[in-house]
Fold each of these.
Amino acid sequence: MSITWDSVSEGDEIGSLTKKPGVSQLVKYAAGSGDFNPLHHDYAFPQSKALGSIIVHGRFKYASLGEAVSNWLGHAGRIRKLSCQYRGMDFPDREMSVGGRVKRKYEEHGAKLVELELWTTNDEGKNTTPGTAIVELNA
Amino acid sequence: MAEQFEITDEMRAVIGQESPPWTHEVTTTSVRAFARGVGYTDVVYFDEDEAKKAGYRSLPAPPTYLGTPIFIPGQSNDTFSGPNHGGPRVKHGLPGLLDGGTETEYRGQICAGDRLTVVSKLAALDVRESKSLGKMLITTTETSYTNQDGEVVALQRSQAIFY
């Protein structure tokens, strides 16, 4: 069932994703995005050694926020704006949850818009990637 | 960790300078590679028939995917894949790099088959201090993505943290 304007209420949660990206997933993300910063795959890289580990790409988390929105939207509209801040590092092989909530539902110049509050939470419950999306619904 | 760091006039002079344009390609293979990298299971990003059924011209670019910079040895950055000559360059001498934040505004649809002309400029420089990383330089870069029909399909503002 597609999302429609009438089916959305402020406060609704969008379905969450659970991820546990390991090195293999990060290597796939590196290949798909073109970001081959060794900090995301090479434990011998000086910055990784200094941090004690490689870390998950911030942009992987950003793209995962987009994935959660895309899954919720089911192609029944389009994303107008998507933003996030990288507030904390995430380490490989740790579970993270990607989710969001409808913050505001409003019309602007005839467009049916929904503002979403987004997050990724790590296995200690900390929100490491707060984000926002503005989505325009088709109907 | 940097104890002291100041923004110099030489660094400030880079603000507002535009990079030369560079091409990003969006292909069926590159869309699938990105979608796999993120971990999508939605077949619309993988199967062209499903994409068309969902109303797209071809495989749509997943959110945050703005094409893959064409790679040419000697001209492209081996680590980040973008052009070496492109992008506003601030000489700061700080070795560490982290992503600060990203905002993308979509103005049009991006699908496999598109060729995007990408131009970026440095919008702002700030210095902040963190307990763990010391003095940090925050750069804000604005990048525009224009498709083969001359339509600006996306604008991105991104913050990088150098420490």
Note: Chain A is about 25% helix and 35% strand.
Amino acid sequence: MKNQNVLVIGSGVAGMEASLILADAGMKVHLVEKDSLIGGQTIKFEEVYPNMECATCMLAPKQQEVLQHENITLYLLSQVKKTEGSAGEFKVQIEKKARYVSLINCIGCGACYDPCPVSLDNEFEQGMSQKKAIAVACPGALPNVPAIDADNCLRLNGKKKGCNACEQACGFGAIDFTEKDETINLEVGAIIVATGFDQFDVSGLAQFGYGKHPNVYTAMEFERLYAQNGPTEGKLTLREERPIKSAGIIHCIGRKEKGYCSGVCCMYSMKFAHFIKDKAPEAEIHEFHTDLCIPGKSHQRFYEELSKKIDFIRYEDVEVKGNNGNLEIIYTHSNGKRDSIKSDMVILSPAMIPSKGTKDLAKVLGISQDSMGFFSTQDQNLSPIDSEKEGIFIIGCAEGPKDIPDSVSQAEAAAGRILSLLQ
Amino acid sequence: MNKKIGVYVCECGPNIPERIDIDKVIEELSSMGEVKTVKRYSLLCSNDGKKFLKEDIEKEELTHVVVAACSPKEHENTFMKVCEEAGMNPYLFQMVNIREQCAWMIPDKEEATSKAIKYIKAGVHRVLFHDPLKQKELEINVDVLVIGGGISGIEASLSLAGPNRKIHLVEKTDSLGGMAGKLSQILPHQGSKIKLVKEKIEQVENNENIHVYTSSDVKEVRGFLGNFEAVVKSNQENKEGIEEEIKVGAVVLATGFEMFDLKENPVYGYGEIENVVSALEFEEMIHSEKIELKNGKKPKSVALVHCAGRKEKGYCSKVCCLYTLKFAHYLKDNLPDVDVKELYMDLCLPHKQDQSYFDQAKEKGVEFIRMDEVEKIKKSGDKIEVEYRNNDKADKVSVDMVVIAPAMVPSQDTSHLAELLNLPLDKSGFFKELHEMLDPVATPMEGVYITGCALGPRNIPESMTQSHATSGKILSSLIPGRKVKPEVKVSEIKEDLCTGCQTCLSVCFYGAISYDPFKGVSVVNEAICRGCGSCVGSCPSGAIRSKHFTYYQLYQEVMEALR
């Protein structure tokens, strides 16, 4: 492999780690991210198990390092559209959408948000809050520079010609409506795919009442609800702003449908119970689980501690019903008994599934997906991170559901494989 | 040296002047003794701003610089770099945060201005007492010592070895392969019939850049990233006791695991009852293709008992559910009439392909029985009875053979090596990662890495992945021809004040401090110290100072702020 350039797709915890190790070794890294910020899913979490560390604080130094590293070129709002060639000499085409805000001039003061006349659902917050057409995804987003949503900006979509409210408010000349989308062509020696995961869509499973009953939340919604930089600034309340007196957390949503265990939901569901106990100590909490999959060396202790405070119910089947604004969880216990519990809030812990763009990217890269939709790897024993194509590596949740340390290990391993080949 | 200080106030666009009267700041600061110049600039971090700063430092021939602007987290490095480019020592620089801590916090302009003035004056006072610290560079050795010749150690060695990098692979037994070498087959859905371990061992033996020491122990390891010295002692018959000193730049620990001793808990009846075997013994049976009872007959029924030792050890070993499934498949495939019962607590099948492997076992007729715990395994006539409890009800199964899956526990060498290398262990007795989430193969000792089951239970692909991860970390930090740059802001000990109490040794997380018995004082190894300051706080005689954070510097800064 003569070409010392590497393409990394996805800037979550895995993509960042792989980029940093390669960049430290003197390789030129091209890091492509589809969103306007870096950090992936991990930065949505207030705290991560089992040590309850603040995820944003934990990742911020890594994010800064990525932004400042002289060997990393970052392409935000970008997607890989074409690849050709083989290991050592891939030709790659990237499509980069205009941000309309200069990453160099903007200092992230936020003066442009308020004057913007357009309000939108904030996807980063799972639609639980609004943002302006010029905005950062959440406080603390890095780079701390907003992007203009061209589809919704009145000036850019042509609905209000000449609107320049944000430009007027900017003291740094950072807004540029003339910026154009770009096509970038690169040559790289290797490609690392770190496109992460999405959450299984629970709205198709009517028995859980998601979408019908407002206080049924998905795990990701609850993560943001608990987050200090989230839509409620970390205040745990029901949708109608009543305090939470009881909650039921249901594991394994979508496991049957998808045909695999996601390996992390038991632990994060228990983390949720810990969160609620932290902010509403009197709340009564029930964890509805099937097999507990808690394989980390410190995870069982976490479970044992928690089981002193909350009820664990092993279920055969479970459904959620509305009852005059309250929720009722009706279930069959593993001992065969049918029972029900009233609950203010229900949190559903859905399976992890391949991220949205996986199918398209697989086509672009000329590699296949496995029966579950994740990128296929060659051989689970010899090379769990090698795709079928030499020179393309699959890391993190793009390869299958896993936790943060396993994602980081795979990222470092991909870097190790590439550096080892170059020795 | 004549001190000439330059003070630069950044406006940060409208952010700072909206709340702070910069003219007043300039007026107040200009009257300070050593201050040669005070200037304002619209946006110092911009390219034009940095150029202005560099040229002004050169023009005014400044020796020290104070920048009053945003948080040092944002731009301290930016401005230190500019100072260096302008020919100054970058440590004769101080950043004062008048944006987050003054302009953005205090609505009253007069109050904000007066606080900003105090802060900047304190900064000026502090920078006067800064020392011009120097970045050292150390020559490095890029070779690597790998301890443990199992699949993790083998994979790390193969990945690391190269034309410019020699690997010393030390294995305590007389052959390579470790635990994985004892397994009959790797899980079929993870690639069947591969002679994984054998092939890898051949690759190691044929690699001229890997030196293998079998029947050997590592007796001593001293040093730091890029410069370790180790002593390897041979226990081989004709070389017994011979010690060899080797020099390496990094160390990889791949010391693996052992099996929980089933005799520790009498409920399993292990060692007492015939035909109650451990998972490893069953592996050997598969290896020799002889699944037989002690009387030579084929078993008609087998119980596979999960989670032995889970309660005792306090963790789930992650791989047992899957390998007992492997046993069930093997039994059903090779003894078609055999009745197989899996007694499990929780099925832990966390990888994407695991569930279908489980579903296939069910299709082959394997019976899965959930239990809360095993109460007793005992002999009953020709049969063995496994009594268990589920949902508070007692029940039992009666079979010809029982295979028990014990927990994975740290290998015997773990605590000894931890002491040797000054590494922490976790509550379960495995090595502890530097950071469980973000640095899963590193340790507090820079240059010492861990891979595989030495860190805790995991399967073969995960262990091999971690070995590649250690290789990634080492190959990006030890590059032939490059030097390493140790931390500049380290601790230093005043020998005349040190009483030799060694309190600092006990608080140093990185093992950077040692005791010199001849002088009777503690000594800091500057190549290892990361400048955390724990020792400074712990020293009862005030003999330790942290460079760039000395008591004197902080005192000067605080006194000026309080004046």
Note: The longest strand of chain B covers residues 216-224.
